[in-house]
Amino acid sequence: MQDALDRVDFKALKTLGHQMRGSGGMYGFQAITDIGAALEQAAESVDVDTSRKWVGELSSYLDRVEPFPEPQDSRTVVQLFLPRALGSCFPVTNLITRK
After folding, report:
1. What is the CATH number of the domain that holds 10?
2. For a FRET experiment, which of 7, 28, 51, 97 has its CA 20 to 30 Å from that of 43?
3. Which residues constitute the domain of residue 7?
4. pLDDT tens digits, one per residue of 16-75
5. How far lies 20's CA from each of 13, 55, 57, 70, 97, in Å?
6. How many domains are there within the chain?
7. Is the pLDDT of residue 85 over 60?
8. What is the structure's pLDDT at 58?
9. Which residues lie across from 81 on neighbouring strands?
């Protein structure tokens, strides 16, 4: 996302925002859905400052997300890799467990 901001690539920002809006709530991250919707709208409006604000908000939010501890039994852990605003990914584990 930061690369897209640096290139002033509103098409990429709009696509990324749209994807976040669609998938955040599905995994229980309503804040990601909300930030994604705001980023998509800012990119659609070709607003650099507001787009930069929402990428920063995403980065701040993701810095506060902590994974659940690893399970001590035989449940399967599903990992979700959420995009970091700076272009890397990190796992959020144990969102969904199955016996």
Report:
1. 1.20.120
2. 28
3. 2-98
4. 999 999 998 888 889 999 999 999 999 999 999 999 999 999 999 988 887 766 666 555
5. 10, 12, 13, 26, 22
6. 1
7. no
8. 93
9. 91
**pLDDT at site 87:** 45
What interhelical angle do 10-24 and 48-64 show, nearest 10? 40
pLDDT at 15 over 60: yes
Neighbours of 69 (CB within 10 A): 8
Read off the amino acid at residue 12.
A
Q: What is the pLDDT of residue 74?
A: 53
Number of other CB atoms surrounding residue 87 within 10 Å: 10
DSSP string covering 67-97 = PPPPPSSSPEEPPEEEEPTTS-EEEE--SSE
Token pair listed for 7: 């290139």
**Look-up: residue for tokens 């995403």?**
58
The count of C-alpha atoms lying within 13 angstroms of the C-alpha of 92, restricted to the half-sphere facing its C-beta, is 17
